[in-house]
Amino acid sequence: MAIVDSASGKVRKKYTEKELIEAANYMRGLDLVALNCAGSGHSGGTLSIMDLTAALYLRVANHDPKNPYWEERDRIIWSGGHKAPALYLGLGVSGYYKAEEVVLLRKFDSPFQGHPHWLKLKGVEASTGSLGQGLGIGVGIALAGKLNKKNYKVFVLTGDGEWDEGSMWESAMEACHYRLDNLIVVIDRNYLQIDGSTETVMKLDPLEKRLASFGFEVIKIDGHNMREILDSFDKAKKVKGKPVAILARTIKGKGVSFMENVAGWHGKVPSDSELEQALKDLKLWGKIDIAKLKKKAAAYQRKIDRKITALVPKFSQDYFWNKQKNMQVAMEPTRFGFGKALAKRGDDERVVCLGLDISDSVTISKFYEGCPERKSRFLSMGIAEQSATTVAAGLAKEGKLPVLSTYGVFCSQRNADQMRTTVCYGNFNVLFGGAHGGISVGADGATHQSLEEIAVVGILPNMHLVVPCDSIETEKAVEYLLFHLKGPKYIRFAREATPIVSGKNTPFVFGKANVIRFIGEKANFIDAFETTLASKYKSRGEKVAIFACGPEVPEAMRAAWMLSREAGIDCRVVNIHTIKPLDKEAIVKTAKEVDIIVTAEEHQKGGFGNLIASTILEANLDKKIKFAMIGVADRFGESGAPWELMKAFGLTAEFIAKKVIDLFKH
Q1: CB 405 within 8 A of CB 391
Q2: pLDDT by residue (tens digit) across 355-379?
Q3: Radius of gyration over alpha carbons of the chain, in Å?
Q4: CATH 3.40.350.10 corresponds to the domain 3-290
Q5: Do the beta carbons of residue 207 and residue 141 sit within 8 Å?
Q6: What average pLDDT does the segment 346-351 reach?
Q7: Domain formed by 332-499, architecture
Q8: How far apart are CA 50 and CA 70, in angstroms?
Q9: What is the average pLDDT across 530-541?
Q10: Mean pLDDT throughout 6-28?
Q11: CATH 2.60.40.10 fits domain 314-321+509-665
C-alpha cells in the first residue's frame, strides 16, 4: 500500500519504480529552488535523502493526505530535522498541499519552519531539530502501537553524524530490549557532517556491526537505487522480534556536480547562478517555473514585511541602523570576538578547544587556523555535547583550560546536568561558549534559538556568566575568563552581525557594570556616547535608566538617542555585561537616582529583568520606581530573518523607547 483512502481502504495511487525516480528528481529541483528563495538552509543532506523520501511517502508508508490523523497510518519521524525541506516535499507530492508551497520555507509565520514543527503543519509527526532525539520519539510511538495493539509501522529517518549523540544509542538499546519489530530506522549514510568526514570528526564505522550488536536487523543498501530501496522496505516490514536498521549509502549533494561529496554544502544554499547549474545537472532547467515560484515567495515576504512593519512603534523619523546620514555604525557578529581571542591567546599550552561539529560557525576553529602546531590541542568531539562537557571537566582537573562551544541551546541545556553536577559542583575551570544566542539566530527557528540561558546557567552555584554587548567586548571577556578567572564560566554571544558600540579603550571590568550616556548626534554612532564604569559615574539628573545585556545594549543606546530627540528624555544605559556575579551596587545606586527603569534582554522576559528587579526590591528603597521589561514573552521562537524577528518579537529600540514614553505618561 502507500497513499491510502482511509475511508475505503483503497490505494489512491501506486507509483511505479520509474515514477518514483522521476518524483525524487523533481523534488530535488524544488528543494533547491525553495532553499534559494529562503536564502539559508541545508542543501547537501536534503539531496542525499530524497530518493528514500520519495519511496517512503509515495509507495512504502501507509498514510492519507486527506486524513492526516488517521489512527492506522504509519508514522514517519524526521530525527534529522535540518532536512525539513525533504520532509515538506514528501508531504507536498503526496497531496497534503501543493508541493510548490514549500518555496515559503524558513519565512516568518510560515508552516515550513527551518526545522519541522508538528503543531504548525499537518503530516509532520514530531517537532525535531536538536539531533539525537527523534529515535527516542519513534521508540515511544512504537511502544504505544504495541500497547494499543495497532499494526502501524514507525519509520525514523536519521543522519549518520547524528549517531555521535549518546541518546541515539540509549534509544537503540530500548528499541532492541523491547523487540520493536514495528520500528524501522533509516540511516542516511553519506559520510559527511559539518566539520568534515564522519570518520574524521568521530569515527562511526563499523556502524553495521555496532547496530547489529545492539540487536538490530541491519539491511545495507545503495540509497540512490530505487529497486534496492523498495526491496529493503519490503524486507524490513517482514522482520519479526527485532527492530530494523536500513543503512543507506548515499551521496551528500546527490545529483548536483559541484555539491556532491562536499561537506561545505551541508548548511549552504545555491545562488541564482548555482541554482541554474544545479537544475541543468538534474536535467530540470526549463521544466520548473523558477520565476513563478520566486514571485510567490516574494509576494509572501511583502505581506510579512507589512505585518511586521505594522507592529513596530512609529516615530517622526526612521532611526534604524544606518538609515540616517549621520549616526553610522559598523556591524560585526559578537561570535567573531570569541574566535579572535582564541586565535590571539591560543599559544598557551594549557588551552584545549573541543569542537562540536559547527566549529567554523561558532569560530572556535580560529584557535588553530594558521597555527598547525595547535591542531593537537583541538579535539573533535562530534555532535556530543553531554560527553564533551564531562571530558572538559576531566581536562580541567588535570590543569588544562578547556573551551567548548556550540549553539547556546545545546551548550546550556542539552548538557545541563553535566554542567551542574560535573563542572559546577566540582568547580572546574571550563569555559563554555554559548554561541548563536537569542532570537536573532533567524531562519533555523525555535529549536536553535536559545532564549533561556541566563535563567538556566545563571542559577548554577560556582558558575560565572557574561553576555557581552559586541564583538570587541566579547574578545575582552574571553581573554579575562580564560586566563584570569578560575572556575566554571559561560559566555553568551550571537550569530548575526550587530553594532560595534565599544572600542579598545572602553572600560571592561569583570563583574562591574558600565554606564553609557548619549551626548549628542555625531557622524559615527559610537562617538555619540560616552561610557564610564558605573562605580565612577556621577548622575546627570536622568530620570530613566535602561538596563541591558548583550546585543540589546546597542538597542538600548539607540533608544536613548530616540528618546532624546523625540521626547527630550535624558536617560542612562547600564551595560550589565557580567550577569554573574551581578553588580548589585551599580543597580541599587542607579535605582536611587532615577524614577523609571526598563530592562532589555534578547531572552525570555525576566531571565535578566528579574535579576535587576529582585536586586532593587531587596534594597528596600524609600521610593517608588516605575519598572518594565523588554524580552520574549514566554513563547518559543520562529523562523525568519534575524532583524525581522527582533522586530516581530518586540526587541528593537523602538519598543524600548515606546515603553519608556508610556511609563512617563502614566
Answers
A1: no
A2: 999 999 999 999 999 999 999 999 9
A3: 26
A4: no
A5: no
A6: 98
A7: 3-Layer(aba) Sandwich (3.40)
A8: 25
A9: 98
A10: 96
A11: no
